[in-house]
Design brief:
Strand order of the largest sheet: 2-3-4-5-6
Structural class: alpha/beta
Number of domains: 2
Largest sheet: 5 strands, mixed
Distance between the termini: 40 Å
Radius of gyration: 22 Å
Number of strands: 7
């Protein structure tokens, strides 16, 4: 990965520059840097009312049109949000460091941000349908199908696996809320190259869109270590996981759950099986999911909106 691309991705991750408002600020400040040159002074980019200069809807849209990008929601204007000044300060510091390191190619940086805007504004967020026309399981399945379609349109990308994993992470945090500080009941997310995705007490949870023999070998390693493996997968992955576990002689020792049911069952329970309670549980799930995506992903289009 080129140094500039790597630096931009790391900045987005560590500075939590996610969402459309952050994109607007980054695009506006990058254009200021191209016009004025580097280094920049943050105080020169604020109006008297504390807004970021040039980060209004009209100004950012004009820049995006130069790159062939149409569409920016009015309620996501970067310059009018309270946190915009803080984002601007962080980004100016970042650009000035790139300048000191001799890798601040501002034209390339602007292209990088507008490419992200194109994916975000034209692709839009994923949507969880909560209008009553979908059951909970169907609504979750629909989100995964949306991610799968994006994956098919973008070879090399893997939004389906990321969405699935972060939904399960959000579900675990929601279910164990209030107990996460207790060692005996904590949830630990573990790097995917190790024995599982999540650990809850002696349960080792594997979250995969496409189960494989390698996954079942990890489950066998869990069993050998005295752990209880649990696979969470898609509707189509259920038969594959169950077939592989039987084939490898551990079908009676590995639990396999369909992701939709794994999530929906807890939402019903947490909501007391009432309509309003279940809807509130779904809202909290998506809120936690979006926080996780903001912390761990660089693609803002992985966020989920609720269709009310």
């Amino acid at each position: 990965m080129p140094p500039l691309d790597e630096a931009l991705r790391e900045f987005v991750r560590t500075a939590h520059m996610h969402g459309k408002g952050s994109l607007c600020v980054a695009i506006a400040v990058t254009r200021h840097a191209r016009v004025r040159g580097l280094p920049l002074r943050p105080q020169d980019l604020l109006t008297e009312s504390g807004q970021v200069v040039g980060a209004s809807q009209t100004a950012v849209q004009a820049i995006l049109r130069e790159h062939g990008v149409e569409g920016i929601p009015a309620d996501e204007e970067g310059g009018t949000r309270r946190s915009s000044a803080h984002r601007m300060h962080m980004y100016v510091d970042f650009l000035n460091r790139l300048h000191e390191d001799g890798i601040a190619d501002l034209a390339e940086i602007e292209n990088w941000w507008t490419d992200r805007a194109r994916a975000c504004f034209e692709g839009g967020y994923l949507t969880l349908r909560t209008d009553g026309g979908y059951s909970l399981c169907a609504a979750v399945r629909d989100v995964l199908l949306q991610a799968e379609k994006r994956e098919l349109r973008s070879p090399g990308a893997a939004p389906m696996g990321a969405v699935l994993r972060h939904l399960i992470a959000a579900k675990l945090e929601l279910v164990l809320e209030g107990r996460l500080n207790c060692p005996e009941a904590c949830v630990a997310e573990i790097p995917t190259q190790t024995a599982c995705d999540f650990a809850v007490e002696d349960v080792r949870i594997h979250v995969v869109a496409a189960p494989s023999e390698a996954l079942l070998r990890k489950c066998i390693e869990n069993l050998d270590a005295g752990m209880r493996p649990l696979i969470v997968t898609t509707q189509s992955g259920m038969a594959v996981a169950e077939g592989l576990s039987e084939q490898m002689g551990v079908g009676h020792r590995v639990d396999v759950f369909e992701a939709e049911e794994f999530i929906a069952g807890n939402l019903y329970r947490l909501g007391g099986f009432t309509k309003d309670g279940t809807a509130e549980s779904a809202r909290r799930l998506i809120e936690k999911y979006n926080v996780i995506v903001a912390e761990r992903e660089t693609d803002p289009a992985l966020h989920i909106a609720m269709d009310r």
